[in-house]
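Board notes, transcribed. Complex of a protein with flavin mononucleotide.
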Amino acid sequence: MGRTVDDNALDTLFRDARTYAKWQPRPVTDETVHRLYDLLKWAPTSANSSPARFAFLRSTEAKERLRPALAPLNVEKTMTAPVTVIVAYDLKFYEQLPKLFPHSPAMAKLFENNPEMVETTAKRNSSLQGAYLIMAARALGLDCGPMSGFDHAKVDEEFFAAGKPCFGCDQEFFPEGHVKTNFLCNLGYGDPTALYPRLPRLAFSEACSLL
Ligand SMILES: Cc1cc2nc3c(=O)[nH]c(=O)nc-3n(C[C@H](O)[C@H](O)[C@H](O)COP(=O)(O)O)c2cc1C
């Protein structure tokens, strides 16, 4: 489209955006959570497959269900965050392809018979969608704290086990234990006084090649 965003937006999305562990006592409304999903859903996934599923934990009760799965260093930042998102992926994402990719009925069949491709596609694209969530959150003025330090099996069992509803979801769309956790992300309005100095990044010459 050739449109660019201004420097202020680039600061908000990248240069000034940090990973937060301490939070201001300011809630994240359900309306903001809806706006967040309604932004991130537009970013691309392969065959428009959209395999990510998001469980937004807001209540103390939901956080307590998560607590036993958290690595010790991630407990306090998670319990105090206004919202913790479980970024997960649905291994039956291809069942939605007739709606999401209607011009190519063969695509769903391709996945049905290829569990390896299902897993690779689900992991790759749910990771992308998790990153889109982070960028969309920043665009809405929220701060993030992504985490991989937790017990996946425990989270899957507690939130996505066979026959259990997805906590906090209006409907049981995770009914058969085919949803797996990818990573967690705390959301809120961060407390900048608790930040450590920014860590360095690789320079262009260290990370990129021009061929
Ligand atoms: C997928 C992922 C997993 C992470 N896991 C943890 C974690 O378990 N605990 C933690 O304290 N930080 C975790 N981090 C935070 C990173 O260490 C942090 O984003 C990185 O050092 C950059 O910090 P900055 O955004 O403040 O520059 C994780 C980040 C990502 C993207």
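Residues 115-139 form the longest helix (25 residues). Confidence is low (pLDDT under 50) at residues 170-175.
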